[in-house]
Each structure stands twice: as structure tokens, then as C-alpha cells.
Amino acid sequence: MAKSKYEYVKFFEKDDSLLKNTWMVVRIDGRGFHKFTAAHSFQKPNDPRGLSLMNRAAQEVMLQVHDIILGYGESDEYSFVLSKKTSLYNRRESKICSTVVSLFTANYLFYWKEYFPDLPLQYPPCFDGRIVLYPSDENLRDYLSWRQADCHINNLYNTCFWTIVQSGKTETEAEAELRGTVSSQKNELLFTKYGINYSTLPAMYRRGSVLVRDKIDVHTTNSSGKEVTRKKSAILILHDDIIGNAFWKERKHLLMS
């Protein structure tokens, strides 16, 4: 390509290459999602359609960005972990972050009708994003543990809050009833007053969603009419505990990526 006298403007671009040999986490969050969910009549405290749509958008992101080894989502946020060895876009922060956020948003919009067939979008959703680097495996696990603990704390509170409101009390009364309570008291309130055993609620609500790459068996028929089984790469949606060690022992390859 011929050069022009205007090419000097490239030197004004910022070098935003990220430190090598560190875990890279792209975290996206819904912007103004309280208003968005209200405008679209999301079920409270959890709307399985909305959470499933978030998971679908995240799956599509991982299918297109192969350097992502794990995703974790709860509520209106998703965290994507990229391998320490990734050289995607020469580790340029702006390119990686903008790609993940735009892919996620595009797929959220694209698959909306599949999960909300009778509910047209009133206005487009918006997600923001950031990248944080974690130098050690322990730091990365602590980050993911923090997000899953946050999921539990928020969901327990929201389950109590909306159960009280749906029983006929005002939001102000619900806030007052929960003020100063600890987890054990919230669990007791749900069970004794409303007959809800929190531990039996769907794991997706209590633990969030973990996306990992794995091989699954696919059964097909060959040209001779014989059934054959082959392995196919897939993005699995799990609702496992990622704070304890069992998940990481079973998938040692993740921290070796």
C-alpha cells in the first residue's frame, strides 16, 4: 500500500499492550440494567430467560474468541478469562476489550427473540467493559471466588426482598425487615415465613454460570449406515462451585493454559 504524508497521525495512538504472562480477565457489565429489566418486565428476583440469554451470548463469544478459557456470569455481568499465553491482537487492551464487549452485545441482541419471543425490545441494551490482569493462579481464583460469593450474597438478599414484596409488603417495608440481617437469618426467614428452602433453588441463581470448553460425544451415521461416535468441541454451561478445590482439581488444564 502506498504511503501518504498523513500517516504520521498513527504515532498519536497509545501503546496499550498488556503485560505478558499474566491472566487477563475481560469483565462486562450491563449499563443501566435496573431500568432495562423493569422496562422489559423481567421476573424478580431471577428471570431464567434473561440469565439464559446472557449465557447464550457468552457461549457465542467463546466460540469466536478461542483464547478465552473460561467464562463466569451472574446477574447482568460476565467475566471472560484469557490464557496467560494469549497473543490475541498482540495483547492490546483496547482491541481485546472492544471485541469482547461488542460481540457479547451483538449476540445478546441477535438471540433476544429466541428467549423473549413475545416481548419486543423497547430499546437496545448497553454493556461496558474493562480488563484486569492477575499475576498468579491464586489471584485469578480469588477473583472468580469473589464474583461467585457476590452472586450468592446478592441472590440471597434479592430472594428475600422480592419474596417479602410479593407477599404484599412495600419495598420500603422489605428493606426495613432485612436491614442488619446476616445470611443465616435470611435463610431462616425464607424457610419459616414462606416455606422456601434456599438451598433447593436452581443452582444457576445461587452460584451463577461457569462456561468451559470440553469434548462431547456426537453420534452420527456414516455412509454405510453404521452409527459412529466422534468427539466434538463444545462450550459447556455449568453451575458448579468454583470457590472450593474440586472444580479446579477436575480441570487442572485450565490453570495450565
Characterize the structure shown:
One of its GO terms (molecular function) is tRNA guanylyltransferase activity. Adds a GMP to the 5'-end of tRNA(His) after transcription and RNase P cleavage. Residues 6-135 form the tRNAHis guanylyltransferase catalytic domain. The chain starts with 22 loop residues before the first strand and ends in a 7-residue tail after the last helix. Strands 4-1-3-2-5-6 form a 6-stranded antiparallel sheet, with helices on both faces. 23% of the residues are buried. It has a domain at 14-146: tRNA(His) guanylyltransferase (Thg1) (Alpha-Beta Plaits). Helix 5 (137-166) crosses helix 6 and helix 5 packs parallel to helix 7. It is built from 9 helices and 6 strands. A hairpin with a 5-residue loop joins strand 5 and strand 6. It has helices spanning 33-39, 48-64, 93-110, 112-115, 137-166, 171-178, 183-194, 203-207, 246-250; strands at residues 23-30, 68-74, 77-82, 127-134, 209-221, 227-238. The model has no long low-confidence stretch (mean pLDDT 95). By secondary structure, it is α+β, with helices and mostly antiparallel strands.
